[in-house]
Write a structure and sequence with these properties.
Keywords: Membrane, Transmembrane, Transmembrane helix. This is Lysosomal acid phosphatase. One of its GO terms (molecular function) is acid phosphatase activity. It catalyses: a phosphate monoester + H2O = an alcohol + phosphate. This protein is of the alpha+beta class. It has two domains: 45-178 and 270-391, Rossmann fold; 194-262, no CATH class. The chain contains 15 helices and nine strands. The protein has helices at residues 2-10, 12-26, 84-100, 122-135, 181-191, 194-202, 204-214, 221-236, 243-247, 249-262, 267-273, 275-290, 306-315, 372-379, 387-391, and strands spanning 45-54, 114-118, 166-167, 170-171, 299-304, 329-336, 345-351, 359-361, 370-371.
């Protein structure tokens, strides 16, 4: 279905011209002369936004064996839980996007305008709710309690073990849990390739050193990513790190990012890991232009993880990136041309700091502005036609 939608969009001009020719031949009425006049200088109009946002600051998801902070009272809410800082950050990011899209989104929340999907993780679900609290504070008749500037807005999810499943033609992917044998095989091949074999060899002494002090086995780059994940959280919470961790903190950060990048190191792993979410983004764009949306929505929000941010950026051609901060966001904006002349265009933006504004990102292989037609052409190789079938060996 997504491929059909994109086909209809890419061939819409031929279809429309054929219909126009039939009208002229049959002499049915007169055809308005609006599409072939002098090009207007009116500005383009924003018609659709899709946002992938990483959850807010959290507690560690695990501890290493020799972790001096494993019994801290800071973890009262459990592992992987949003912190107060994380909650405030996600609320502020919602307000930031309210400011950016205030003239585009209605002041009042409507399910006809907005759809929200989250990874089935408490921190992602809560982050989505906090984002929405900043984006859509209740106004007018939506105010249900004058002491609470908040209103409930639905956030959709599915269990992790089904999170790449075809439900009513939806292609959602925010957490790799459903088995994909072809992806697993391709990932093993990645770790066996020359780059990662050399990387592990060059860092073998560091791995031994980290294993000795942390008590955690260190055999390859993803082991470092897991250790750094915990150390980074503790550092952000102003906990004192052991001397051995401080000494190699920057190098571990570099290796941790390479670990995240390893998950989408080849075209095959990109297509199978980030392709389904990218498919949903381009499908919504195509349906918007063709007028095929059952509900003519303006915003799709996806709440996920750092691995989703890294994987999607790499799949879009941005492979030299920094480790995403909490609240980092990838934004797709679809613009309608002035007076409907010419093609729609796509703007890609990235927010990696809640105190800044989203910055434009060039779409590799596409001119500026990037037309929707070119965007579909560029992304097509990264979008699986049938994820379940492609996962088979």
């Amino acid at each position: 279905m997504p491929q059909l939608t994109q086909f209809l969009y890419l061939n819409r001009k031929g279809i429309l011209l054929g219909l126009l020719g039939a009208v002229l031949l049959l002499g049915i009425g007169s055809v308005p002369f609006f599409a072939f006049g002098e090009r207007s200088h009116a500005p383009e109009r924003l018609v659709l936004v899709s946002i992938l946002v990483r959850h807010g600051d959290r507690t560690p998801t695990s501890f290493y064996p020799n972790d001096p902070h494993r019994n801290s009272t800071l973890w009262a809410n459990g592992l992987g839980a949003l912190t107060k800082v994380g909650k405030q950050k996600m609320y502020e990011i919602g307000r930031l996007f309210r400011n950016r899209y205030n003239d585009f989104l209605s002041e009042k929340y409507s399910p006809n305008d907005v759809y929200v999907f989250s990874s089935d993780s408490d921190r992602c679900l809560m982050s989505a709710q906090l984002f929405l609290a900043g984006l859509f504070p209740p106004v007018g008749e939506q105010i249900w309690n004058r002491h609470i500037a908040w209103q409930p807005i639905p956030v959709h999810t599915i269990p992790r073990d089904l999170d790449k499943v075809d439900i009513t033609t939806r292609h959602l992917y925010l957490w790799i849990a459903k088995p994909c044998p072809k992806y697993s095989k391709a990932l093993n091949e990645t770790y066996s390739n020359e780059f990662f074999v050399r990387l592990n060899t060059e860092n073998a002494d560091l791995y031994k050193y980290l294993e000795k002090h942390s008590g955690k086995p260190m055999n390859y780059v993803m082991d470092v990513e897991g250790l750094f994940n915990t150390l980074e959280v503790e550092k952000l919470l102003n906990l004192k790190l052991p001397e051995w961790a401080e000494k190699h903190y920057d190098r571990m950060k570099e290796l941790a990012l390479l670990g995240l990048a390893s998950l989408t190191f080849t075209d095959t792993t990109k297509r199978l890991k980030a392709g389904p979410l990218l498919s949903e983004v381009v499908e919504h764009m195509s349906k918007k232009v063709l007028g095929l949306m059952k509900q003519d929505r303006k915003l799709y929000l996806y709440s996920g993880h750092d691995v989703n941010i890294v994987s999607l950026l790499r799949t879009l051609g941005h492979e030299e990136i920094e480790k995403p901060e909490y609240g980092a966001s990838i934004i797709f904006e679809l613009y309608r041309p002035a007076l409907n002349e010419g093609d729609h265009s796509v703007q890609l933006l990235y927010l990696n700091n809640s105190q800044s504004s989203p910055l434009p990102l060039r779409i590799p292989g596409c001119n500026e502005p990037c037309t929707l037609k070119d965007f579909l052409r560029i992304t097509k190789p990264m979008i699986p036609v049938n994820w379940e079938a492609e996962c088979l060996l």
